[in-house]
Amino acid sequence: MTLYRFVMMIPRWWLLLMVVPALADEGIFDQYRDLMGDDNPAIFVIEEGEEFWVQSQGPSAATLEACDLGLGTGVTRGAYAQFPRYFADTDRVMDIETRLLYCMETLQGRDREVIAAKPYSLRGDFGTELEALVTWLAAESEGMTIAPEQAHPKERAMYAMGEEIFFYRAGPHDFSCATCHEQSNKRIRLQQLPNLTEHTEVAEAYGSWPAYRMSQGLVRTMGWRLQDCFRQQRWPGLIFGSEVSIALQTYMAVNATGGIMTAPGLKR
Amino acid sequence: MKDTAKGRVSRRRLLNWAAALGALMTLPARAWATVSRPETAFDATALDQALMALGQTPTRHEGVIFTTPDIAENGAVVPIRVEVDQTVLPNVSKVSVLVEMNPNPLAAVFDIAPGTEVYIETRVKVAQTGNLYAVVESDGQLFMASRETKVTLGGCGG
Amino acid sequence: MAGRIKIRAQKKGELTEVKALMRHPMETGMRKDQAGESIPAHFITEVAVLHGDQTVMQAHWGAAVSANPFLGVRFQGGQSGDAVRVVWTDNQGGTGEGETTIR
Q1: How far is A235 from chain C (nearest CA, A)?
Q2: Could you tell me if residue B65 is inside a domain?
Q3: What is the set of active-site residues of A?
Q4: Among A9, A25, C4, C71, which residue's beta carbon has the most beta carbons within 10 A?
Q5: How many folded domains does chain B comprise?
């Protein structure tokens, strides 16, 4: 019996059954998103971020306008898209949030521990300064190519660390990031899980954070997103501004290189 | 009151209504609110209670075009649209939106100058899967459309 | 931050379509914060859309309207260049206002 004959024996509708499960998940929220339209409350947070940038604060009564985000003093356009990156003045790789804290400390004389103690909104809050600044800076990179620096050995080492952590299984459920994010076309409940090892998918995922989280009424950053992943994996808490956080962001950003920044996004 | 020359009558009513509202707008905020806000209906904790506070049990009418998603990505932000086909249901002066399974089903009441376009879009919180209602008032009578919207819990539960 | 409204208004044939996004927590009063304390209710109770000095639509809202609320309406008439305003008051006595011109 030839393969052709064998296949022709299968009732045609059986073949459809194999295809439908994959299609059934496609676009389940299309109708919802169509009805939502484009109006994203993140637009307010962008403005709030810009206001914080030019606001005099701290013992030095200075603004953040002299902050160097990698493209020169005060250059904000396109800066977010090139994070995480190495900075000579601190001799380490920094993400956007740790870099902002550095500028708050050195330019404004503020205590970084105070800000690091509560960087993100809690239930009932309407947004933090850091969330707003990150949102505005991401918007300053909107439409630009994701291009984190990888020229410096420390930058490359950060990528390697991120990759190692991504595949590292731990915690009571023996989860790694890869458990949920290494395959395409997977979902948890009705939430599509991006494959963060595949370029198109990680570019779309990485490029859409920070994002307005509808279920929380807040814009959340990638740093926050990673903390929440650790919580959901039942891992120990991810320390704000830690090397682990920066390493994972580096891993994703480098995998996303060449993609386009679309943030701030609109998510569930 | 019969509308003879429709344009003339509706414009007069519109101007009277607008003048009344204009007067209301200059009042202190609290005074404006207590004049026209259906407080009892907003306080109702069950659907039929809210509907009675709005006036009566509405009857279904195909002129009420109610659009909600079959399934919402989250329950905190559910987009809805209410339109009225004025060729079959004219003189709509009020549109109310109710979410049956919410602790307080009445979400919003829109006052519209009679005779003008009825097209409203907003986003409401839907506590759990259940029916949403668009209730319109026309010449003192209530008509409605309803749709079920499913609400999903996100990802790992949050 | 408080009171901001982003408004777009454009002609759609004979109608004018207005889309407004408002900055407001729309707190129901039923949530508790991380420390277990009740978060006070804070939501827009009245909102109006004005075309020139005519109120096109007035709405009464409960706390079930989503945070950072969206409002879309269409009304007859309106010309390019006409002013459209959206105003609101909330249950704590706060107010918000925004203005645009019809495209």
Answers
A1: 20
A2: yes
A3: 229
A4: C71
A5: 2
Task: Identify which has the larger pLDDT, B10 or A146.
Answer: A146
Q: Write out chain C residues lying below 8 Å of A41, CB-based.
A: 21, 23, 67-68
- What mean pLDDT do residues B132-155 have? 93
**A184 CA: distance to closest CA in chain C (Å):** 33
Please write the tens of the pLDDT for every residue from B43-61. Answer: 999 999 999 999 999 999 9
pLDDT, tens digit (0-9, with 9 covering 90-100), for C9-26? 999 999 999 999 999 999
What architecture (CATH level 2) is domain C5-101?
Answer: Sandwich (2.60)
**Is there a domain that residue B156 lies in?**
no
- pLDDT for A190 equals 87
Parse chain A into domains and list their residue ranges.
40-267
Q: Which two tokens stand for residue A36?
A: 């939502």
A37, A39, A44: residue with CB nearest C23: A44
Q: Does one domain contain both B23 and B73?
A: no
Count of CA atoms in the C-beta half-sphere (13 A) of B28:
5
Homologous superfamily in CATH for domain A40-267: Cytochrome c-like domain (1.10.760.10)
In a domain, B158, yes or no: no
Which of the residues in chain A have pLDDT under 50?
Answer: 13-24
Per-domain boundaries in chain C: 5-101
3-state secondary structure of C77: coil
B47 and B32 in a single domain? The answer is: no
Q: List, as ranges, residues 15-74 from C with C-beta within 8 Å of B.
A: 15, 17, 19, 28, 30, 45-46, 48, 53-67, 69-74
Longest dimension (CA), chain A: 85
Closest partner residue to C21 (CB to CB) among A39, A122, A217 is A39
Note the pTM of the prediction, 2 decimals: 0.88
Shared domain check, B44 and B32? no
Listing DSSP states for C37-75 in one string gives PBPPPB-EEEEEEEETTEEEEEEEE-TTBPSS-EEEEEE
Chain A hits for B74, CB-CB cut-off 8 Å, are 214-215, 268
Residue of C nearest to A219 (CA): C68
User: What tokens appear for A87 in the block?
Assistant: 């900075």
Comparing A162-176, B1-15, B76-90, which segment has the lowest mean pLDDT?
A: B1-15
Distance from CA of C52 to the nearest CA of A (A): 24
pLDDT tens digit string along A16-45? 444 333 344 568 999 999 999 999 999 999
Same domain, yes or no, for B99 and B66?
yes
Over 90: is that where the pLDDT of C3 sits?
no
List the one residue out of B116, B22, A44 whose CA is nearest residue C7.
A44
Distance (Å, rounded) from C-alpha B3 to C-alpha A59?
A: 70
pLDDT in tens, C27-59: 999 999 989 999 999 999 999 999 998 999 999
C56's CB contacts (< 8 A; 6+ apart) are B113, B116, C18, C49, C50, C73, C75
